[in-house]
Description:
By secondary structure, this protein is mainly alpha-helical. The chain has one domain (about 1-5, about 20-275). Helix content is about 55%, strand content about 0%. The chain contains 14 helices and no strands. Helix 12 (about 220-235) crosses helix 14. It is globular.
Amino acid sequence: MKNLFVCILCLLLLSCNESKQVGDTIDDVEDNDEINSSPLVLCDACDCSNPPTGILVWDYPVKPGTDEWKDLKDYPARIKICQIPEEILFSLTTEELTEICLQYPFLSTDVFSFDFRVSANELYKNFNGIRELFEREDASKELLRHYIYKLQNMSILDDESATTLEKGRFKISIQNLEFLLGFYSQKVDATEEDYMKILRCLLAGHEKEFVYANPNFAYSFLYNFYARTHIIIKISPQSLEKIPEKMFNQVFNARPGKETIDIINELSYQLIKES
């Protein structure tokens, strides 16, 4: 069942070409000479010389697709089996906890419900790992470490030896991280410096959309857009006054209009320039 779900998501992602036609790049925004033309350089939020280990010090006892998972007849039972035991949860380092959260069996399911706010609240309510992660002061640093590592390895999308399924999973992993960074920005009262670090890295991801926006592997941009919007709401809510009232309900809509996206892009670059 899990493999079928991942395959369906991969096909959806690989057929999504709308992102090529919307949004500004850093070169499209006027008076941005102070910003490096390679936004990945702006991702100074953490030391990525040590990439994520991918090591799980605790793993989920029952996995989707197994007979044991199928025996759990309903959603509440499956949610319950995915909880991290408290004696383990509170002993985990933030690095270890982040790795476990990124493997949460329902993470992609929640992310791809196409309603950011409902998905975020459902995830927070249902999984003790996310609730604990967002209590950690260094949570954003660990999430960004994973995100930057993904951006640095996006050439897999042009790798002819990688399968469609591998590329689809890679893109899903990026969207999961953008979703979590956006939700973190919404849920946690961080410092403006931390918000700006996240925004810089998300802009690097936005730039990568245009590098890899080809007919076969267009980079889906929606969760990057949502995440940056949450940061703008936190550090410069008055900026959203630039969005006409008739379009404001598109900000967290599954298909925001081009004009709304362009405004959020412009505000994002402007905040980086002013920081």
